[in-house]
């Protein structure tokens, strides 16, 4: 049976050679086969690399997040802070998310959460391996702010209408496109200084108002959060 099969394969091979040289060339057929096989091989290779390298990519993401927060902490020598990398693993009621890092990693309540783009929020509850984060767009959120250009001080609050900036000086210069950063809290809790909050998108005109207000577009994409950094006190230093 095995011998018959081998002879059959050889016969087919010879027949293909004869047809290729005498009748219709098989180059298009070979090219098509090569394209299909090559595409399949590349796809399998990509999947294999993806599966094999996923843990490595995650490790690099966490290291980058840690370094980003560490650099932020290093820019403020009086504060002993470090970054804990975490991924958003769930969305709660309102403007709340859950991250996969908790007290076991040094995460505590009332500490800053940010990502590569800017401020995300603050930790409101921490368990052994997870923590709840209140986003800056939450109705109860209030963040001390400073205008990146003029240095004017104000307050950024959350709510149904998004982020709203209130400058303490009603005559302070303000225009669309201005950058807003965190003012910073005592001891860096709940917010460290200098983190981008967002960009002024529209000026609100309220005659006779005691403060000047504007709408702010968040720097971080809060609806598509993944990797974040939690800035925590560093007791190791």
Map the helices and strands:
Blueprint: H1 2-22, H2 27-74, E1 81-91, E2 96-99, E3 112-114, E4 119-126, E5 131-135, E6 142-147, E7 153-157, E8 163-167, E9 179-182, E10 196-204, E11 212-218, E12 227-233
Antiparallel strand pairs: 1-2, 1-12, 2-5, 3-4, 3-12, 4-5, 6-7, 6-9, 7-8, 8-11, 9-10, 10-11
Put the structure in a nutshell:
The protein has helices at residues 2-22, 27-74, and strands at residues 81-91, 96-99, 112-114, 119-126, 131-135, 142-147, 153-157, 163-167, 179-182, 196-204, 212-218, 227-233.
Can you offer a commentary on this structure?
- This protein has 237 residues and is of the alpha+beta class.
- It has two helices and twelve strands.
- The strands form two sheets. Strands 1-2-5-4-3-12 form a six-stranded antiparallel barrel.
- A hairpin with a 4-residue loop joins strand 4 and strand 5.
- The chain is elongated, with a radius of gyration of 29 Å.
- Residues 2-51 have low confidence and may be disordered.
């Amino acid at each position: 049976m095995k011998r018959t099969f081998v002879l059959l394969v050889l016969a087919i091979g010879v027949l293909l050679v004869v047809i290729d040289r005498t009748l219709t060339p098989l180059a298009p057929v070979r090219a098509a086969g090569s394209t299909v096989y090559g595409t399949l091989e590349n796809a399998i290779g990509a999947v294999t690399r993806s599966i094999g390298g996923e843990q490595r990519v995650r490790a690099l993401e966490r290291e980058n997040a840690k370094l980003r927060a560490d650099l932020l902490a290093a820019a403020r020598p009086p504060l002993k802070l470090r970054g804990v990398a975490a991924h958003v693993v769930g969305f709660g009621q309102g403007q709340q998310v859950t991250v996969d890092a908790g007290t076991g990693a040094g995460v505590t309540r009332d500490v800053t959460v940010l990502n590569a783009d800017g401020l995300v929020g603050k930790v409101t509850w921490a368990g052994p391996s997870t923590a709840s984060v209140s986003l800056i767009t939450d109705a109860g959120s209030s963040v001390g702010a400073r205008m990146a250009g003029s240095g004017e001080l104000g307050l950024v609050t959350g709510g149904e209408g998004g982020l709203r900036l209130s400058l303490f000086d009603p005559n302070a210069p303000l225009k669309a496109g201005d950058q807003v950063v965190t003012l910073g809290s005592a001891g860096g809790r709940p917010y460290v200084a200098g983190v981008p909050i967002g960009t002024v998108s529209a000026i609100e005109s309220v005659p006779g108002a005691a403060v000047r207000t504007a709408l702010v577009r968040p720097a971080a994409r809060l609806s598509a959060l993944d990797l974040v950094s939690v800035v925590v006190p560093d007791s190791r230093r």
